Amino acid sequence: MHMLTPGRIPLSQLRRIARQFHPVSLPPEAKSRVDDAARTVAAIVAAGAPAYGINTGFGLLASVHIPPHQLEQLQTNLVRSHAVGVGTLLDDDTVRLLLALKIASLARGHSGVRWTLLESMVTLYNAQVWPCIPAQGSVGASGDLAPLAHLTLALMGEGSVRIDGHVMPAAEGLRRAGLTPVQLGAKEGLALLNGTQVSTAIALVALFRAEQAFAAAVLAGALTVDAARGSDTPFDERIHALRGQPGQIHVARLYRDLLNDSAIRDSHRAGDPRVQDPYSLRCQPQAMGACWDVLGQSANTLLIEANAVSDNPLLFPDTGEVLSGGNFHAEPVAFAADQIAIATSEIGALSERRIALLIDAHLSSLPAFLVGNPGINSGFMIAHVTAAALASENKTLAHPASIDSMPTSANQEDHVSMATFAARKAGDVAINVRRIVAIELLAACQGIDFLRPLRSSSRLEEAFDLVRSVIPRYDEDRYFAPEIAAADTLIVSGRLAGILRTEFPDGSF
């Protein structure tokens, strides 16, 4: 059971939620805060004074006063009119994470929803009834309105949900969960629709994919150093201490540890005519360290946002005030997602260059295209082309989405963040990079095979054995695509990352 402590959910817990279902609960003390905010809403309704989103219209219709007997209809209409998402449905892992984020945000007690609504959301989560949420339709301001409307629609028994991969009417899904459709009270539809939980969840999934790609790329890069009989001198800690960049220092240490006691390295310490290795080998701490720093900055931003209250207006029960602001503007998420895309794209670009080095006999001194009897066999020739295609695609996907804006709502919402698109494409970049690195892992292990009986370090041999437990040595041309997919699956499993043991820490609040 995961306890969702509002405002205090660590990154490690978010990572676990994104990867595997566990039931969730809220701490008992959250109820009093939620109840206080709900009573504040009730008092505003009783007094009749206009308060945005509680007894008024929305956006440019904020000046329209809504009488008490129409407030439930106001919230219901809001949800139905905003459920206009299009495109591919978000996967269950992402929906699970965003639902957890929404529950935790509302439970902080500044949104004005009733505790019974939160209980319904927790029950829906624990029954693994996932609302069908189209991925497209949010501009990342006024909250992720369209996707969160689809989430809310399912709570109302409308739209569709997915259970065990099967799509069905939401009413049927609620029945299976033992729930009756929610009837929204004053402010509740707006509280559910406002917020950055969708873009934040998608960006977090992209971050966690980038973590796996990073770990696999460091392992692959170290294997490539040995396969190409490169030098470990560029990883000497004295070099990196003089520059002082923390990510560079951290990554250099990873490479030193991975290459320590490699018999392959020892075999060419003397008499090697080469003075320096190409940048894709020699500058890995500098390039990968910079990527690590940028990804770490993004991780901290997303951790803060995952614990935030980002709907509007916000209730402050201690004073009875309702304050209208703009926490729903997802600019921090957009920047973080764009940084993830840029840094992860660089990880893939560096990996693609190392693959190119390995298959070039003039650079690696290995058999051409890493196969015996080249000519009759093409070996890794076109696998590298696939890596190049993915690396090139990432150059477009890494173009920042956050620098764009498209005014909406009759120019009331005149600057938006495009955070949801930024997050979606960051996830796509990470998948592409994972597949590039999968190809490098296969190429590097093939290179190590050609150097036998010499052995690499104990940890790199562990990585080598893990790859070889799934994909055999490439002796002659064969159907290669399934083996690239198998290496990709190995990265997703986290078993390679377990060898490296490096993840972003929980950070501080």
Strand line-up of the largest beta sheet: 4-6-7
Report the mean per-residue pLDDT as an integer: 94
Radius of gyration: 26 Å
- Given helix and strand content, the structural type is mainly alpha
> Outline, from the CA principal axes?
elongated
Annotation field: number of helices: 21
| Helix/strand order | EHEHHEHHEEHEEHHHHHHHHEEHHHHHHH
The major β-sheet equals: 3 strands, antiparallel
| Strand residue content | 5-15%
- Quick one: how many beta strands? 9
Low-pLDDT residue spans:
none
Distance between the termini: 23 Å
Helix content: 55-70%
Task: List the topology elements.
Elements: E1 2-3, H1 11-19, E2 24-25, H2 30-47, H3 71-82, E3 86-89, H4 92-106, H5 115-126, E4 130-131, E5 134-136, H6 145-155, E6 160-163, E7 166-169, H7 170-176, H8 188-193, H9 197-227, H10 237-243, H11 246-259, H12 263-266, H13 279-282, H14 284-306, E8 314-316, E9 321-323, H15 331-359, H16 361-364, H17 381-397, H18 419-450, H19 458-468, H20 481-493, H21 495-500
Parallel strand pairs: 1-2
Antiparallel strand pairs: 3-5, 4-6, 6-7, 8-9
Report on this structure:
The chain has 509 residues and is mostly helical. Helices cover 56% and strands 5% of the residues. The protein has helices spanning 11-19, 30-47, 71-82, 92-106, 115-126, 145-155, 170-176, 188-193, 197-227, 237-243, 246-259, 263-266, 279-282, 284-306, 331-359, 361-364, 381-397, 419-450, 458-468, 481-493, 495-500, and strands at residues 2-3, 24-25, 86-89, 130-131, 134-136, 160-163, 166-169, 314-316, 321-323. The protein has a three-stranded antiparallel beta sheet. Strands 1-2 form a two-stranded parallel ribbon. The protein has a two-stranded antiparallel sheet with strand order 3-5.
